Amino acid sequence: MTLSILLMGVIVGFLVGLTGVGGASLLTPILILIGIHPSIAVGTDLLYNSITKLFGTIQHWRQKTIDFKLVKMLAMGSIPGVIVAVIFLKLFNSFYNNQEVIIKHALGYVLILVAFATLFKVFFGHKIKENRWQLKSLEEKRGLTITIGAVLGFIVGITSIGSGSLYAIAMLYFFRMVPAQLVGTDIAHAFFLATTAGILHASMGNVNYTLVINLLLGSIPGVLIGSMLSTKAPTNVLRTIIASLVLISGLKLI
């Protein structure tokens, strides 16, 4: 089992490094499909994501490609959103004892959403024209930004998915940013969000620490290898294939 998890970490890390597609949308459904309880899969993935996003955040901070004002404003909505999500799961489990079913179904629907969001980014991301939201200042979009943070934060708290992919689509449409800054800001915010959600899930006993360590041992070399090959790979084709697999996983979970 340990060897299988290490190999899974290598494959997921490799695909993330190669295509940039979010690790959670690949890892969480795989963990569930191999028999890990949905709540453990979500909590474990969040803590794993938190650690991997830390390294990305440090690198982008060095490159000065993080818009910390936007990170702060998104976090003003996303952190309360993720707290509400975890409380929601805890209450439902106390009263109805159906936490696993809620997570599994929510995960299925969000995977479908992420699959379509990834396909949209591949085929139409470069065609998005400047719109009235992008022309407004961040302060003028304060309410909208916090609301986006809260809604997507709630989704991440329940499913562990979307801390990167869904926020990236929102930033692509609503904010005018150069690609490197969009990626850096997305990763930095995802680190704070995944860390908060991971700690909350850990407090509920929803984290398998051995699983986290084995996944990290596999994914770190996987990401490095994938990143080195990313410039030579047909990333859009691979993203389309992965999005299709994520869509199938979502339908299977539902």
Summarize the SSE layout with pairings.
Layout: H1 2-19, H2 23-33, H3 38-63, H4 68-96, H5 99-124, H6 132-135, H7 142-159, H8 165-174, H9 179-203, H10 209-229, H11 235-253
Transmembrane segments: 5-24, 70-89, 101-124, 144-175, 187-204, 211-230
Keywords: Cell membrane, Membrane, Transmembrane, Transmembrane helix
Family: Belongs to the 4-toluene sulfonate uptake permease (TSUP) (TC 2.A.102) family.
Q: How would you concisely characterize the structure shown here?
A:
This protein has 254 residues and is an all-alpha fold. 81% of the residues lie in helices and 0% in strands. α1 (2-19) runs parallel beside α10, α4 runs antiparallel to α5 and α4 (68-96) packs parallel to α9.
Descriptive overview:
With 254 residues, the protein is an all-alpha fold. It has one domain (1-252). 81% of the residues lie in helices and 0% in strands. Helix 3 (38-63) packs across helix 10. It is globular. This is Probable membrane transporter protein. It is found in: Cell membrane; Membrane.
- Globally, the shape reads globular
Whole-number tally of structural domains: 1
Low-pLDDT residue intervals, each spanning 5 or more residues = none
- Total of helices: 11
Radius of gyration: 17 Å
Q: Specify the helix fraction band.
A: over 70%
Separation of the first and last Cα atoms: 26 Å
Structural class comes to mainly alpha
Q: Quick one: how many beta strands?
A: 0
The topology string of helices and strands comes to HHHHHHHHHHH
| Average pLDDT | 84
Q: Give the amount of beta strand, in percent.
A: under 5%
Q: Strand count, sense and closure of the main sheet? A: none
